[in-house]
């Protein structure tokens, strides 16, 4: 199984910035989620982050929280999400990253949870409510299953904590660009650039920036600041949650293409002079 780390090594060798869309599983239904993953995979997503609906999502802003609430209202649970992923991952090129809260992992049992997500084709795991001090056991167990646990750096993290998180994070380091929860913002704070530099000074691992990015212009800015990946969530979730499935899928296709174009290298055509 190709790891997230290996995918980033390949992308960086080509000087490419990765696009990581986030969607909430089960909103509006799991059939649409499966279709959305296929659409994103076909139209430029380098990795796809899939959220598991949870009743008390501490890191989620209003758009993603509402999506999780709708999915829970439709009785969507972790077992159903993994069943859906297991059915579609054989046809998906982009590695899947599961975004879930630690209580769901504990409820299932850490070892059983890891075995189940591996069987579903998941290659990365983000657990936003798992602090660094309690992550070591999960990281060790996940490594044995070939799953990479991606840790988050907050904009308020001290230099010492940034170094500690970067040392333990697998796959890439996830930089949260704003203080607070997920959601669309009108602009990306300039301090993100400085934090990116601070992380780069302590690790050679890839760095992804998320929370608050929703437009091609913001994605391009983050890439110019040196990010290896741009993570976009609420903008995709909003398309799927506020439209019919057909319109929502068309919307995420368009957004994915726009974001990918914004962070892709510009290919300049060379002019040829023909002498007579």
From TrEMBL:
At the top level, the lineage of the source is Bacteria
For this chain, the family text in UniProt reads: Belongs to the TrpA family.
Q: Which organism is it from?
A: Chrysosporum bergii ANA360D
* Name this polypeptide is given: Tryptophan synthase alpha chain
Question: Which residues, by range, are in coiled-coil regions?
Answer: none
Which UniProt keywords are present, listed alphabetically?
Amino-acid biosynthesis, Aromatic amino acid biosynthesis, Lyase, Tryptophan biosynthesis
Q: In which pathway does it act?
A: Amino-acid biosynthesis; L-tryptophan biosynthesis; L-tryptophan from chorismate: step 5/5
Give me the reactions it catalyses: (1S,2R)-1-C-(indol-3-yl)glycerol 3-phosphate + L-serine = D-glyceraldehyde 3-phosphate + L-tryptophan + H2O
Instruction: Please give one Gene Ontology molecular function term for this protein.
Output: tryptophan synthase activity
Q: What does the record note on quaternary structure?
A: Tetramer of two alpha and two beta chains.
Q: Where is the active site?
A: 49 (proton acceptor), 60 (proton acceptor)
GO cellular component: a single term: cytosol
Q: Which InterPro entries match?
A: Aldolase_TIM, RibuloseP-bd_barrel, Trp_synthase_alpha_AS, Trp_synthase_suA
Role description: The alpha subunit is responsible for the aldol cleavage of indoleglycerol phosphate to indole and glyceraldehyde 3-phosphate.
One Pfam family hit = Trp_syntA
EC number annotated for this UniProt entry: 4.2.1.20
